[in-house]
Amino acid sequence: MIDDVMDDFVNEWAAEWPGLDASHLETIGRIWRISEHLRREFDKGLKPLGLTWESFDLLASLRRSGKPYRMRPSELNAACLLTSGAMTNRLNQVERLGLIERLSDPTDRRAIQVALTPEGLALAEKAIDVQFSAARELLRSLPPSEKDTLAPILRRILATFEPARDASAS
Questions:
Q1: Beta bridge pairs of residue 103
Q2: pLDDT tens digits for 28-46?
Q3: Residue 110 DSSP symbol
Q4: Using one digit for the tens of pLDDT, what is the confidence trace for 50-100?
Q5: Is omega for the bond preceding 144 within 30 degrees of 0, making it cis?
Q6: With b meaning 16 or more CB within 10 Å and e meaning fewer, what string describes 37-59?
Q7: Hey, CA dihedral for 145, 150, 153, 159, is it positive or negative?
Q8: Candidates 3.30.390.50, 3.50.50.60, 3.30.1340.10, 1.10.10.10; correct CATH number of 50-140?
Q9: SS3 readout for 86-101
Q10: Which has fewest Cβ within 10 Å: 5, 14, 69, 107?
């Protein structure tokens, strides 16, 4: 078995404070550290494309929505898990790059939609290819059976924070 920094932390707590239960570090600590590493790895892959994780998230959400690759800002808030204030800042940054545009909503004159520009669509597709390839590469050390075991466990943990979206509400 391979030891990692969380094993060190658990052992240090056991020596320093024998009655303290630090066993959560074996799971939660590892999830946290993996998340930090993934973010750095993904940012490295996006940098040559002139993107950050935040701008990629916005472009990918629009691309994932399907043609015509448009969403209302409130829909993007939900897709990117952001507040409206954070979304406004993100939209402004990506719009300055010429990757999105704000258009009048054809069904509601008072509302707007955010749409990928042709340049935004092309970059989104390139970035998605880069990110998905990098993610598959990062998981290459796990055999399919372990991935099949890990995914539902992680789903249960995430669902304690973010229950599944109600399909009827869409």
A1: 113
A2: 999 999 999 999 999 999 9
A3: E
A4: 999 999 999 999 999 999 999 999 999 989 988 888 899 999 999 999 999
A5: no
A6: eeeeebeebbeebebbebbbbbb
A7: negative
A8: 1.10.10.10
A9: HHHHHHHHHHHCCCEE
A10: 107
